[in-house]
Amino acid sequence: MAPPRSVSYDTFKTILINRTSESQQKRLHQLLISEELGDKTPSQLLRRMKQLLGDESLPEKNFKQLFLQRLPSNTQVVLASTRENTSIEELAELADKIAEVPHKYPTVSTVTPAAPSTNPFQFFRDFGLACINDAASCSNTEPHNPNTGPKA
């Protein structure tokens, strides 16, 4: 049996990186389509987007626009007032500071009524309970005495 062929460290490293890393096409797709802010800070998002870009080149202006689109609309409004030559790293720092400010916007929840039951027995049971509740609320009022009539 022959001894194993010696492989240089650099060759082994290149093969290992190629097998374990995401393909260039997959990274670009994630960068352009699916990468979102989520629970990351804007600076973390920027680092992730740069990582996904890898060795590819994208004009700074386009990359900045892509980054800004991933931020919440209130952050985009504030950052729109910055100078055009502000670096993307500075924008990320400003966005981090904006994200740290607690928002005092009211929370709005949508309430949808429950779907009506298709079971007729359930309908009558619910209807009966409603009638009982109505009758109980009426009995809590002061009873009317038929012997007392209008005062003259």
Task: Give a topology summary.
Elements: H1 9-20, H2 24-34, H3 42-53, H4 60-69, H5 73-79, H6 88-100, H7 120-139
Helix pairs in contact: 5-6
Write up what this structure looks like.
This protein has 152 residues and is mostly helical. It has a domain at 9-100. The protein contains 7 helices and no strands.
The secondary-structure class comes to mainly alpha
Radius of gyration: 33 Å
Strand content: under 5%
Quaternary arrangement of the chains shown? single chain
**Counting H and I runs of at least 4 residues, what is the number of helices?**
7
Write down the overall geometry.
flat
Number of strands: 0
Quick overview of this protein structure:
The protein is an all-alpha fold and 152 residues long.
Main features:
152 residues; mainly alpha; 56% helix
